[in-house]
Amino acid sequence: MYFLSANKPPKIDLQLLPFMMRILFFLIILSTFSATLPHPIYVTLLEVKHFPDNRKLRICIKVSTEDLEDALIADGAPKGMSLKTDSVHPHADQYLETYYRKKVAFKVNEKALSLYYAGSKNVLDATWTYFEAEDICDIKTIWARCDVLLEIFEQQTTHLRIKVTPKWKNYILDFQVRDEEIRF
């Protein structure tokens, strides 16, 4: 290393400077345009977690806020519907609950779950929506169906994560495979 020795710093080949400047310019232009393009990855996170001590099942759904707004509008919410923290629509919770009740379903031990809406929150560019079910104990099977955003994005994928035992189980749902039954 030159700072520890008496050697002079390495010389920079000035002939490469115009080439490096072109690459830098290209990267700046690319990053500017890529920020305005729609994102090519459509992934929903659907987490199901059992709390045996208080006999509850918590369901958390994480979706891109912009994509969810588009889906809510397609489902009948007013144009300009916003879920963003600084301009959230006054009836956003009603639209979210209605939409998810149509798009997500669960059964535990072959019995349909009665879920109650527990709210939503925005974190960066994603909206987390929460549901809970009570009096859930001794889970042998969980069946989950998720059609979230499939009406606007056929390439939509849902990462289903379920924790009933000490370990998480992971599954992928998409346009072809919309439901999964998990045995414990």
Textual characterization of the structure:
- The structure is a single chain.
- With 184 residues, the chain is α+β, with helices and mostly antiparallel strands.
- It has 2 domains: 2-34, no CATH class; 43-183, no CATH class.
- The protein is built from 3 helices and 10 strands.
- The protein has helices at residues 17-34, 65-74, 92-103; strands at residues 43-51, 56-64, 104-108, 111-112, 116-123, 126-134, 141-146, 157-163, 168-173, 179-183.
- The strands form 2 sheets. It has a 6-stranded mixed sheet.
- The longest helix is centred in the N-terminal third of the chain and has 18 residues, at 17-34.
- It is elongated, with a radius of gyration of 24 Å.
- The protein starts with 16 loop residues before the first helix and ends with a strand.
- The mean pLDDT is 85.
Features:
10 strands, four-stranded antiparallel β-sheet, single chain, alpha+beta, elongated, 184 residues, 36% strand, 3 helices
The separation of the N and C termini measures 59 Å
| Strand segment count | 10
Oligomer: single chain
Question: Which percent bin holds the helix content?
Answer: 10-25%
- What spatial order of strands do you see in the largest sheet? 5-6-2-1-8-9
The overall number of domains is 2
Computed CA radius of gyration, to the nearest angstrom: 24 Å
* Biggest beta sheet summary: 6 strands, mixed
Give me the secondary-structure category. Answer: alpha+beta
Q: Regions with pLDDT < 50 over 5+ consecutive residues?
A: none
Can you count the helices? 3
Q: What series of H and E elements makes up the topology?
A: HEEHHEEEEEEEE
The global form is elongated
Mean pLDDT: 85
Strand content: 35-45%
